[in-house]
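Notebook entry, structure prediction.
Reason for the run: the old model in the group folder had no record of what sequence produced it. Starting over properly, with the input documented here first.
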Amino acid sequence: MSRPAFDYRYSIIPGGAVTDPNVSMRDLQVLALLGRHTDKKGWCWRSQVEMAAELRCGRATISRSIKRLVDAGWLEQEALPRGRTVHVKGQQPFSAFKYRVKIDREDECDAPSAGDVPNNGHPRDVPENGQEVPIADGHGVPIQTGTHRRTPFKDPLNSLAPADAVENAMVASLREGEVARWPEFRSVVDKSWPGGFPPKDEVACRKQFDPLARERGADLLMACAQLHGDEERRIAEARTRGAGKAMLKRPSNWLREGEWQGYIPQAEALAAQLAEMATALGRVRRSLGDGIFRLFRERMGDAGLAALAGVTIEPKAHFLYTRPVQRTLMERHSGAIERHLGEPPTFTLVAERKAS
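New structure, fully documented this time:
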């Protein structure tokens, strides 16, 4: 049997969450997923889009579970900057977060009580000299001082190496093909950044791009580069005449200094919007059929077509819709629909039809 791409050995989560009535099975699954990636202080940075793909659910489901976990006290979240702007609650349409799994809460302390701690400072069931721990039948478990138990085999997927190190090695090996996408990244910078890509910076930039592409993927780097270029262009256009030419950072320095990471929240949000758009377009295509779908797409574009989610068609060009705006969109193209289907279309509001 083949081994999965990632074989995480453990997940660090608070035991009390398992029996918390306010935590659903999906919430517990999200908490365990975050627990696979926490650092020594419990913090981790995970994309909700990636988490939704891993758990095979919608991004909104992940967002709701995170909110319930935060409200229940098992999780903390902290907003990350958006581009060059520090996140301000209530003033930004979206933001990325880092999360911390809370092992202990203020109302749940695992410290031993005074009755459990003898005068020598050790708990009563732990011997001072490390010889044995007595149990009910009089037998004990020997404790070998100065040793550390390890697994008897040397499988890297089951070793005691930090989970992050194993994961990063696997991700790097799986993303070797991302390095070959360097020409795409260079083209994005050349087209979107003011002044284009400086030829003298190509070698230095390639050295920064290769490891980052293996670690985070070329698509993310290209999305961040596009957003940075758009922002720099807006700044250049807003600059007053005669103020002089601004000194633009070289792409190699932009990657090396980590400035690209400030655009991750925007890139992730755009990716989520595109995913939602693709889902809506898929529904419209299944309900209308390929012919009408292509006709509407040529005339409305993807944004207008996605607004038709929920519209269905019956024989003889009879369209059923759920919102008035959908009828307005279709009526604008009723002539093209008639030419395509060979008969004039009729429109019926689903709620009115059910009421009748």
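Summary: The first strand starts at residue 43 and ends at 44.
The old model has been moved to the deprecated folder.
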